[in-house]
Amino acid sequence: MKLHRRDWLGGTGGGLLALGMGEAPGSGPIPPFDAHNRLTITDLKVTPIALPDPPLLAASGCHGPYFLRNIIELRTDSGTVGLGETVGGERVTAGLEKARAIVVGQSVLSYRRLASRLQALGMGVYAGIELACLDAIGRAMGRPICELIGGPVRDSVEFAAYLFYRYAADHPVVLADPHLADSRGKGDRALDSWGEVRTPEAMAAMAAGFRDRWGFRTFKLKGGVLPPKVERDSLFALAERLGPGAKLRIDPNARWKKDTAIRIGNEIARLPMEYYEDPVSGQPAMAEVRKATGLKMSTNMCVTKFTDIRGAMRTEPIDVLLVDHHYFGGFAGCQALGPLAKGVGWTLSQHSNSHAGITMAAMVHLAASIPELTLASDTHYPWLVPGSDIIEGQALKIENGAIRVPTGPGLGIALDPDRLARAHATYKKCGMRRRDDRTLMRRIEPGWTGELL
């Protein structure tokens, strides 16, 4: 039987019962909220998963064949279960396992009190547990997360098309990867049908496809992959193909030399550039490029924690900060950035890495609760292979480039235990335990070094 890309999970085999077949957390009746119930945590369950990843290219190399996440289920004495999703990899998994001794016996209402001990295990550990606590509180109260934290200030959240250069999903080297643990193949058995995208023309065609399918109005090109002049030409091709009204961004992930960044920045300045993200490394170099080009600069690399802000106020390297609850101190940290950004004249957006539907819902709730987060957020969600998400039902719907804020309790989504079991079975079978873009890239391009361009 052939495996269609919309049903790729059938190839993992044997994983359906790996985690049990109970009712999906959050899918049953909502228990009434009892003001005297502390919602004490009785168990923390951590499930590492691997989800299929097409061969997307970045300065770090080539994605694939899977990306890793950790899924958290916090059970409480009331029967409420809170869901969390955080960054993958065995180090984070180990940190979450250690966190069990910290959180069991505590109330989900007290997650801020536990923050320092959890953050000592890793910011991703704290972010995942904080999200699960918020979800549990929302489910117990019957209210969406964004209403618990002062929002929403908007009913829908805009996202940007995240455009990657890439190889075809059925590239022979990709299909020969030793970590491959499903039955993907060529043609209809490939993960997707976007094909290879390594020219300006192909990039413009893919962008038009993203616009037609999801209605995006903002388009971010992941650069630092091809020669800078090719990426410059890709931006011009995007502007021509997408027409008036389309906003453009480029993110070379600090792979460009300062002279390159200034030259390309001056050449693209006449395009409808919303911002220029991390073309170079470090705050001083970013500030020089900003001054030399006059472009608005953004980052998720030179300001990633609160202690970076003092230097940024001195060097003035950016105009836009991309927040991420996985490393900026969870929802609480990202919300604190709102008035701070307003005070220093920054605008906010959201950073993204490969993720599933729990994180997608979290990003929507967070963006809906921060008034200063007015630019379209990044998201990898359109790259998630259809049928591979771990939430019940259909994937969260992107229409006109935006997702409406879920109105159900907590995150407003429920976990699908069968899909979670399959993703966990894939994790165990594939053997990947950390992200490694360099190895696959060197298999495809043996001479690749990742040096500055």
What report would you give on this structure?
With 453 residues, this protein is an alpha/beta fold. It folds into 2 domains: 5-142, Enolase-like, N-terminal domain (Enolase-like, domain 1), CATH 3.30.390; 156-412 and 424-430, Alpha-Beta Barrel (TIM Barrel), CATH 3.20.20. 34% of the residues lie in helices and 15% in strands. The chain is built from 14 helices and 14 strands. The strands form 4 sheets. The protein has a 7-stranded parallel beta sheet with strand order 7-8-9-10-11-12-13, with helices on one face. A 3-stranded antiparallel beta sheet has the order 1-4-5. The model is unreliable at 1-33 (pLDDT under 50).
Q: How many helical elements?
A: 14
Could you say which overall geometry the principal axes of the C-alpha atoms support? globular
Q: What is the CATH-assigned architecture of the largest domain?
A: Alpha-Beta Barrel
Strand arrangement across the biggest beta sheet: 7-8-9-10-11-12-13
Mean pLDDT: 92
- In total, the number of strands is 14
Which residue ranges are poorly predicted, with pLDDT under 50 across at least 5 consecutive positions? 1-33
Order of helices and strands: EEEEEHHHHEEHHEHEHEHEHEHEHEHH
Largest sheet: 7 strands, parallel
- Number of separate structural domains: 2
Write down the CATH topology of the largest domain: TIM Barrel
The portion of residues forming beta strands comes to 15-25%
* CATH class descriptor name of the largest domain: Alpha Beta
Instruction: Kindly report the name of the CATH homologous superfamily of the largest domain.
Output: Enolase-like C-terminal domain
State the secondary-structure class: alpha/beta
Distance between the termini: 46 Å
Percent of residues in helices: 25-40%
The rounded Rg comes to 21 Å
